Structures are given as C-alpha cells and as structure tokens.
Amino acid sequence: MAGGIKLFRILGIQISLDYTWFIVFVLFAWSLAYGYFPFHSPGLGAGMYLLMGTISSLLLFVCVLIHELSHSYTANRLGLSIQEITLFIFGGVANLTKEPDDAIVELKIALAGPLASGALAIGFWLIRALIDAELYPVPYAIAGFLVTINIVLLVFNMIPGFPLDGGRVLRAIWWYSTGDINRATRVASQIGKGFAIFLIVTGFLQILVGNFTGGLWSVLIGVFLQQAAEGSYRQLIIKRTLEGIRVRDVMTKNVVTIDGSLSLSRAVEDYFFNYHFVSFPVVDNGRVVGMLSLNNVRSIERDRWQSTLVRDVMEGLTTENVLSPEDTVIDALTRMSSMGVGRFPVVEGGRLVGILSRRDIMKVMEFRTELQGWA
User: Fold this and answer.
1) Residue 295 in contact with residue 309, Cβ under 8 Å?
2) How many domains, in total, are found in the chain?
3) What is the DSSP string of 261-283?
4) Domain boundaries, position 61
5) Same structural domain for residues 49 and 77?
6) I need a surface site. Which of 24, 50, 182, 318 has the fewest CB within 10 A?
C-alpha cells in the first residue's frame, strides 16, 4: 500500500497514516458516541458522549500503533528491515523489504502484536480498577472500553486467517511442520477470505433484523479483511517470485531509442506506430537524456507536432525514473506502480544499457510462479 500522510518516526520506523483512516475514524467515533457509551454509561449528555467517542477513537489508534510497533520492532531485532508502517484504524501495513526465511522468525513476529494487545488490556484493566466509577464516570468508562477493545483486537487478530496475526501463526506452524511455505500461505489466505465472507454475510443479516450499526461494522471489517487477504497474498507472491532478481537479469538490452532532434510527427510515425511501445528513451549525441511517452505527445496539439522537437517535450532523467543494472526488480516494480510509469531506462556510467518494462517483470513472475508451484 502506497501513499498516506507521514506523521513521525519511532524506533527508527516511519509512521504514516492512510487516507481512509479519517473515514473510519469518524464512523468509529460516531458509533461510540451514539451507541456504545450511552448504553454502558447512561445520563452523561450528548456533548460528553461525543467527546468520549473522539478520545476513545484516538486512544484506539494509539493501541493499534503499539500493536504494530511490537511486530516491527521484533522483526527488526530478528534481522528484517521494516522502515515504515502505514496505519488504519483496524491495524497497519508494515513495509517489509523481505519476507522471513525461517518459520520460527515468522512465529515470533506474528505473536509480538497480540502479546502487546494483551499487555495493554491488562494495563487498562488495572487503571480502571483504580478509578472510582461514581466520582469519575468518564475516565472509568473510557478505560473499560480500552480493556474491551484490546481484548477484541487480541482475539480478532488471532483468528487463523491470513493476513491476521493468527493466520501468520498458522502459516508459521504449517511451514515449520511441512517445509512448504507456498502451501502454508495459500491455506492461511483461503481461511482469511472465508472468514471475511462470513463477516460480510453475518453483517447483512444483522442489518436485516434491525442491528444496523453492528451489521455495518461487520460488513466493513469483512470487506477490509477480504481485500487485505487477497492483497497480502498477491504481494507475498510478488516478493517471493522476484526476490533476489536484479534489473540486469530481466531488462531488454536491444533498446529502440529516439533522437532528441526529431520532430514529434516523425516520432509518432516512425516509432510509436511502428514499434507499438508506449515510451522510448531519448538520446542526444549518443547519451540518454530523457524519455518520450504517449502522454508527452498528447500534451501537444496535433498541428504543432511538425514544429515541436522530441527534446522539447520529453521527461528529463532523474534519480527516480532511472534504474541501475544492480537495482532489485522489486524496487523497480514499486517505483513503477507509485509513479504510474510502465518503462524505465537502465543506465550505467551515463550510458544506456537496457530498458525495463512492467511487461518484462510480469513475464518473469508468470514463469517463476508456475515453476515454484504458486497458484
């Protein structure tokens, strides 16, 4: 998952917030203010309930952050590099540079989060026990909610479906027992999608019988979990199939280039119509100086194509849109996705040595996926 708002760094890890968090935050605060707290702590007033809902939602965010930091800190201590966490109200996505290569390491990382949630539940239970409910009903109610929600996070995350922590525990145990991480991941992912469908169906049934708020949350969490299960499985396949592959192993070495002094009309007729590529490296005096794409051409009115040179509309080269032969294919694919680009020139010592396209990467993935038994 790309994007989001960068907040701060903790333990050397960048904490970012996904944009969808704000939508879910509002929904969660509303459901607490108009459902949970009026039922559990009656007689406090609408304004106070709204304040309690907002504070509790923010504290839930803190609890989720601690849960995810426990995973990431453990992973970093065990030799994996996690540099960023993107948070949702439901959880977070850690940016792993590589997957664990040992089942025991996977198990330790998976258990770190639930253990943190369990510790938080105990901590808030002790705080609640020290508060006088009659004198301080608001902090007492909020502490009680935080006990409940951390237990819910613990139990929910331990459901044995990928990508929940319980799914990762199941995958680690299956992997350790059989040595087959492919099959272990596939089974855990299928269980995760099955549980998501169960939540969605249950949520619609609750809505039909009148429990709109509970049913809505069940549907939302089910949809979120289903997308996370499918996305995490696809992401894992991509990482495992492309792990260790360098750009030089995949790139096309016989590159068709365009001279920067050509007119756009010549470029369209002689290159885009002839070779059917969406972009071409641009060279000037034998050195690559940019990339010309269909979007660059479309930005110029057709009646100006004859008088406009390629070098005048091309995208100049930067460190972001140029690859080195030693870059990893995973990094190249990530950059292509985030920038919405289909091809990158590969440059070494200022000289064009190849070009890497998304199609090249997909072919390698398809080939290796079939050989390695992923499906």
Assistant:
1) no
2) 2
3) TSBHHHHIIIIIHHH--SEEEEE
4) 5-242
5) yes
6) 318
